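Minutes, project check-in
Item: structure for the 124-residue chain
Input as provided by the requester:
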Amino acid sequence: MLQIASYEKYQDGQIIFKEGDSGDWVYVVESGSVELSKMIGDTKIVIEVLRREGDVFGEMAFIANISRTATASAIGPTTVGIIDRNYLDDEFNRLSGSFQAILKSLVLRLKKTTEAIAQAKVKA
């Protein structure tokens, strides 16, 4: 079970984090919905809408130590839990260095794939 450090409430359209921000926190949907989107030029591409309690987002930046790959915005009144950073660090550091490297590689590949798909949607 995830250890939640704190909760934040957002109103419709309010930004939780922006693409390019540093990624120190991982979030979990407690209630409401969260839209994940990317900007390609002047075009907003919706990657996914998280609607289920327990959906996790912001994990890519944490795992690969990269900037945020998307913008997260509330859809309607939304409450998110912020997963305790010490808990995440402890859990991640329990993994072998080899497995950590595999996870980082997967995240970086997913980042490239998401960017390619978003670019293709704009061109279509």
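Outcome recorded: The chain is about 35% helix and 40% strand.
No further action items on this chain.
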